[in-house]
Amino acid sequence: MAERLVGRPAPDFTLETVSGNGQDFGNASLADYKGKWLVLFFYPLDFTFVCPTEITALSDAASQFSELKTEILGVSVDSKHSHRAWINTPVNDNGLGKLNFPLGADITKSVARDYGVLIEEEGIALRGLFIIDPDGEIKYQVVNHNDVGRSVEETIRVLQALQSGGLCPINWKPGDKHLVAK
Predict the structure, then answer these.
(1) Catalytic residues
(2) What is the pTM of this model?
(3) Is 132 exposed, middle or buried (0-12, 13-18, 19+ CB in 10 A)?
């Protein structure tokens, strides 16, 4: 059974990355995001079918996340070289094109394991998405089957609800009233 991470400190990580421009290599660690909101998402593998729909949709929405003072980091068990090749592959050839956030390489699978999304038998990650607050606490986690993509709209809605500081009922959106605790 997967461990609950919500309400706990996010597991520390350091990953090699490739920038969204598909050129520059670097590193990312949890400490880099201290004081910021972070959407950390895992996907199974580069050069697959559902993954580019999610990754490019998150990239297209990057300005909305930026307005919410939130960074995005995508992670798979592929190498930084594979990520770079995928970003530099044209979209019509199952590539990503340029992105508005980096991709992290978890080739040791340790980060996916620490976040409870590694399918050990297959050596790949499930589709896991985590919202981490500026203090490093996991506020939201969703993990689903690799055949089904996630919702960018729902991720933004949940992020806005978390940032609102109130009790948010079902389908809460900015401008809606918070519940009053008794």
Answers:
(1) 51
(2) 0.94
(3) buried
